[in-house]
Amino acid sequence: MPALHIAIIYGGKSTEHEVSIRSARNIAKAMDNRKYCLSLIGICKTGAWYAKTPEQLQNEDVVLPCSSRLSLVPGGSQGKLINLENNTELSQLDAVFPIVHGTGGEDGSLQGILKTMNIPFVGPGVVGSALCIDKEITKRMLNEAGIKNSLFLAFHKSEKHQISFENAVKKLGLPMYIKPPNLGSSVGINKVHTKKEFEAAVDEAFKYDQKVLIEQNIVGREIECAVLGNSDAIASPVGEVVTNSDNHSFYNYAAKYTDASGSVTMIPAKLDTDIQNRIQEIAIQTYKTLNCEGLSRVDVFVTDEGHIVVNEVNTLPGFTDISMYPKLWEAGGIAYDDLIDKLILLAIQRSNEENTMQTSVDIS
After folding, report:
1. Can you say whether residue 146 is alpha, beta or left, with left for phi > 0 and alpha for psi between -120 and 50 degrees?
2. Among 74-83, 106-115, 125-134, 195-204, which is the least confidently predicted range?
3. Using an 8 Å Cβ cutoff, are 246 and 253 in contact?
4. What letter does residue 150 receive in the DSSP assignment?
5. How far apart are CA 241 and CA 254, in angstroms?
6. What is the DSSP letter of 45?
7. Is the peptide bond before 268 cis (omega within 30 degrees of 0)?
8. Looking at the domain that runs over 221-348, which CATH code has it been given?
9. What is the DSSP letter of 47?
10. Residue 209: alpha-carbon gap to chain centroid
11. Which fold has domain 151-216?
12. Which of 49-58, 127-136, 255-264 is least confident?
């Protein structure tokens, strides 16, 4: 069987650019060159696409502009990627692993480009990606499905004059969290206790997003569950994130990525079997409610009373050395390289199924 031609797309315009590069390095390292012919596509912080070498992936801390800029040409049975340096076409791709975190990568825009190009890709499609990136919309969808999540308030930047510390306290209590709803990796999130902190946190959130989300504080254990599959999704064992409270007041960006002692993960989490089963059921229900496919990680809180409260859904979770998604599946018996194989297969299967759909109507 000939090797599949797979492209890893990484980088992007979001605040998670550097995390994306680390994920791409790990994925590339895990891919068996007997099974895959690998192309690397880096998106720099201006949004330009470049063909990259393995050496550039390993050595660049950010995606740097280079001579091999790519142009996208949609149309035909599959769109084309043209190297503008020598006007050559990148050979047809069997699938893409778009490990571009955050805005421009997980919000459906990249998925829309790939769908227009008719290139199979790993992870949820346009709708699932868009629903999950906007945490306000996610919460409204969960409420519609009867899936428990935290109380919240949301405001567009044009409604900033309506934001009131006193009203927020009345509905949500203290402390509360303020965040830009369309970012990941805890960028721009603040836990606030006072009016001064509240006002500063609102201003910071609006630096990153056109909306601000104000959430009730849920006191509970932070539990994560990986979900894998298309219409027949399965859930992994669950893991717990324990943040070092001496250094961080919550599981923020530093605790996740820059502070080696910022947090520890326990897989499997020390929870009763019944609670673990319920978390897995809720994770799959959440996954299907939000139209996820391929993969996602569902994060929940478990309160002392045994309530399970969905926090958020990450549609393209990290694949770094310390990332929870692959670690959870490793605990479930799927090794990192096998997980990559399964995700690529799921992408191709979904694309093949979509291509069998009728695209014309017989009006005779």
Report:
1. left
2. 74-83
3. no
4. -
5. 14
6. T
7. yes
8. 3.30.470.20
9. S
10. 17
11. Dna Ligase; domain 1 (3.30.1490)
12. 255-264
Classify 142 as helix, strand or coil. helix
The yes/no answer on whether domain 4-121 falls in CATH 3.30.465.10 is no
With contact defined as beta carbons under 8 Å apart, do 277 and 211 qualify? no
Q: Which residues neighbour 332 within 8 Å (Cβ) at sequence distance 6 or greater?
A: 226, 236, 237
Report the alpha-carbon distance of residue 257 to residue 241 in Å, rounded: 13
Question: Phi and psi of 209, rounded to 5°?
Answer: -150, 160
- Given this model, what pLDDT does residue 245 score? 56
Q: Which two tokens stand for residue 145?
A: 């499905």
Average pLDDT, integer, range 246-267: 58
Parse the chain into domains and list their residue ranges.
4-121, 151-216, 221-348
What tokens were used for 146? 């009867």
Give Dmax over CA atoms of the chain in angstroms: 72
What the block records as the tokens of 59 is 């050595």
Q: Which parts of 186-230 are beta strand (E)?
A: 190-192, 211-216, 221-229
